[in-house]
Structure formats: C-alpha cells, structure tokens
Design a protein that fits this description.
This protein is α/β, with parallel strands linked by helices. Helices cover 39% and strands 14% of the residues. It is built from 15 helices and 14 strands. Strands 4-10-9-8-7-5-6 form a 7-stranded mixed sheet, sandwiched between helices. A 4-stranded mixed sheet has the order 1-2-3-13. Strands 11-12-14 form a 3-stranded antiparallel sheet, covered by helices on one side. α9 links the parallel β8 and β9. α2 runs antiparallel to α11, α7 runs parallel beside α8 and α12 packs parallel to α15. It is globular. The relative contact order is 0.16. Bound molecules: pyridoxal-5'-phosphate. Pyridoxal-5'-phosphate binds next to α4.
Length: 429
C-alpha cells in the first residue's frame, strides 16, 4: 500500500514538530513505515488523508469508548461551546461529572479534575506523600504512569519501544525515592517494605497493566498489595487512567472487587477531550488545597467543554445493557482472532479484561515485563501491516493494549476476524 498524502503531511510535520508527532506512541517506530494522518472519524471507523477507511481499535488510545464523533457527545459539545469555552470559575458541570465519578468508581468519595493522566498520577502521588508524610513510592516495572520525571523509571511501552531505559533529562535526584519491583511479584514488594517500611507513602499500580501490552494481575496480587499497604501504613493507589470506565463501569476496582485508597483517572473520563482526575476517600482528599495544605492547581482544570464530553460519555456508558454487550463482543473478537491464529499455526497469548485486550506473539504466558519483552516483534510488525492493508487499525506496537467501543458491532467483529484469517495466512508463508 502507498499513502502519498500521509507521506507528504508527515514530511511537513517533521520540519516543525520533533519526529513529526506530538506523542511518541503515534510514530510507527516499532512496526516500520510511517504514521497515517487521520482526517476524520465516525463510529468505529477512521479515514486517513488518502481516503482509506479503517476499523479503529486504537480509539485515541482508549478514551473513545462510545466511538468517534458520538452524536450525543458532539451535540452536548456544540451546545456547551456556544456558551463559552472557559471561565476560570466553578461551573455546575464539574459537580455533575464529579457526582457521576463518585457513583461509578467505588473508591471515589471526592474528585479533583486535572487535564491529563500525567497530571493525575503526579498529583495523586503528591497527595499520598502529603497525607502520609513519607517520601518513597513503589512503582512496578512495565507500568506507565505518564511522563512525570520521578515516574519515568522502567515505564513500559512507548519508552520501551524506543529502547530508552530511562529518559535523559531526568535528574538522578528525581528518581531516588522511586522504588521498583517486577509486576505480579508480591515477594519483591514485600522485601521493599521490609527494607523501607515506614518511609513508603504508597504503591502505584496499573490494576490491569496496559502499557506493556495488556497483562492482567495474577490471582491474589492486588489483594496482596493492599494487605502489605495496610500492614505498613502506606496507601494503595490504582492508576486507572486506562482501565477506568473500561474494564468495568467502575474500573478495575469494581472488576476485581478491591477498593484502593486513591485512584488516578484519565482517558475515558474526558470522552476524547483532555481530562484527568484523582479521587479517593474524603478524609485523604481533604488534604488538597484549598480544603487542605497540598497545593495543586490548573488554569483549564474542569474546563466546561472537556467536562461536558466526560458527562455525555459516562451517561452513554450507563445505559442499560450497553457495557455487557460491549464486553461480549470484545470476547467474541478476542476468541475469533485467537482461533484464526491457531488455524494458521501461530502461537498467540491472548489477554482480555472487559474491553481492553491484546495478543502477544509469544510462546509463553505473559505476566510481567520480562516475559512480555520475549515476544516476536518482527512477526507482530508483519501482522500489523497485513491488517492495516485490510483496513484494520490497531496500536502500532506489541506493547500496547487494543480498545473496543459500544459502536463496534457484531458485523465489525466478524469483518475483523476475517481480515485476521487472511492476514495470518499471508504472514506465515
Ligand atoms: C495514558 C496513561 C497515563 C498518562 O495519561 P496522559 O493523558 O497520556 O498523560 C497514565 N497512566 C496510565 C495507566 C495510562 O495508560
């Protein structure tokens, strides 16, 4: 396939934007070729600058759980824009979205809105440190929590894809209080607690890891982390920026029945506009200014347009039956692609939690960064391009999750499975 218009646009972008993209995961570095420039999206589809249509399983990397240009979201946004785009003063809309979050997310008694997932994790960890009066945090290898300096340690997908163990520009002093352990390894966390117990403010964890491919927690892992936190007076912090409103309406904490002390949110909560949030027990959240002493602020935080998209999206998700149907179709797709691979003699490790899923080209089960990194990246790259040429777009890296939406119909699922059947046949010859 050739993409002359995308090629021209990419060349122009590279002149004025580093690498031609505004977030590294968008580049096709891990699969070869160059990124497609997108002109529009509607429902489950996107169209590139050369007029090609694709079934989209990136969905803006998760936020668009109601699909592209959802009519209810667009109508609400148009109406909101007519009333002005920002005031820097409170609006009733913010309370409405906060109420929805508190109703849906088990750990949320109070919510503070910010503008991205990065801001959410950065702020929630400042809060954990302020509340406990401790400096150290534990982060898990292969988990990604945005690009704050002190969190850019063994941080999975985009960083791993680029082969950067840590980013230059992060002073050593910034990461000295960040302790790391392998994902799904309780013993490693326990020994950190044994060594640093009363210095550890909390553990931040992706309750379903989605930034080293999609890796679910092993049985007993999340409850084990919770028990260790309780024993040592530390806080359990779920980074649900990706899993929130996606693996279940109330996120991974609902899915696994484990309520953390604090939660970071992003992606779906803004329905395609820039929103992040952190939430948790009232008593802890009261530490945040102006209720308490921990400073955190934002000129555009709680922006009326962004919050409006969030409200319309969460309302759409709460319609009876919508979530269940979406999960059923996700399972149908995952199983269908698994069967197609098997028929072609390719070993895939399939993972799924709610509407997040992924396929590792890997002979062994994947439970952590070490096992994920043994995947066959060359074969993944060939599959990616074979699917792209058949009109199916999914993340251009083995180390990313795929996403599903309410508007991916059974017909879309069947068409994707058929594309996979011929794609697998093509890449095995
Ligand atoms: C995407 C993501 C972030 C960062 O969110 P941004 O909005 O990109 O800053 C943080 N944590 C997790 C788990 C994510 O998937």
């Amino acid at each position: 396939m050739s993409y002359p218009n995308s090629e021209k646009l990419f060349a122009a972008a590279q002149q004025v934007i580093p690498g031609g993209v505004n977030s590294p995961a968008r580049a096709f570095g891990a699969v070869g070729g160059q990124p497609l420039f997108i002109e529009r999206g509607s429902g489950p589809y996107i169209w590139d600058a050369d007029g090609n249509r694709y079934i989209d399983y990136v969905l803006s990397w998760g936020p668009l759980i109601l699909g592209h240009a959802n009519p209810d979201v667009v109508a609400a946004l148009k109406e909101a824009a007519e009333r002005g785009t920002s005031y820097g003063a409170p609006t009733a809309l913010e309370t409405e979205l906060a109420e929805l979050v508190c109703e849906m997310v088990p750990s949320a008694e109070q919510v503070r809105f910010v503008n991205s997932g990065t801001e959410a994790t950065m702020s929630v960890l400042r809060l954990a440190r302020a509340y406990t009066g401790r400096d150290k945090i534990i982060k898990l290898q292969g988990n990604y929590h945005g690009h704050a300096d002190f969190l850019l340690v063994q941080a999975g997908s985009a960083v791993a894809t680029l082969g950067l163990p840590d980013s230059p520009g992060v002073p050593k002093g910034m990461t000295q209080d960040t302790l790391t352990a392998p994902y799904n390894d309780l013993d490693a966390v326990e020994s950190l607690f044994n060594q640093f117990g009363d210095e550890i403010a909390g553990i931040i964890v992706e309750p379903v890891a989605g930034n080293m491919g999609m890796v679910p927690p092993v049985e007993g892992y999340l409850s084990g982390l919770q028990a260790l936190c309780r024993k040592h007076g530390a806080l359990l912090i779920f980074d649900e920026v990706m899993t929130g409103f996606r693996v279940a309406p109330g996120g991974a904490q609902e899915y696994f029945g484990i309520t953390p002390d604090l939660t970071a949110l992003g992606k779906v909560i803004g329905g395609g506009l820039p929103v992040g949030a952190y939430a948790g027990r009232r008593e802890i959240m009261q530490t945040v200014a102006p209720a308490g002493p921990m400073y955190q602020a934002g000129t555009l935080s709680g922006n009326p347009l962004a919050v409006t998209a969030g409200i319309a999206t969460l309302r759409g998700l709460k319609q009876p039956g919508v979530f269940e149907t979406m999960v059923e179709r996700t399972t149908m797709l995952s199983e269908g692609i698994g069967a197609a691979a098997e028929a072609a003699g390719i070993t895939l490790q399939r993972t799924q939690a709610g509407t997040m899923f992924c396929f590792f080209f890997n002979e062994q089960p994947v439970t952590d960064w070490d096992s994920a990194s043994k995947s066959d990246l060359a074969l993944f790259g060939r599959f990616f391009h074979a699917m792209l040429s058949r009109g199916v777009y999914f993340p251009p890296s083995q180390y990313e999750s795929w996403f599903f939406s309410t508007v991916h119909s059974q017909e879309i699922v069947v068409a994707t499975i058929q594309a996979a059947q011929t794609a697998f046949a093509e890449i095995t010859v």
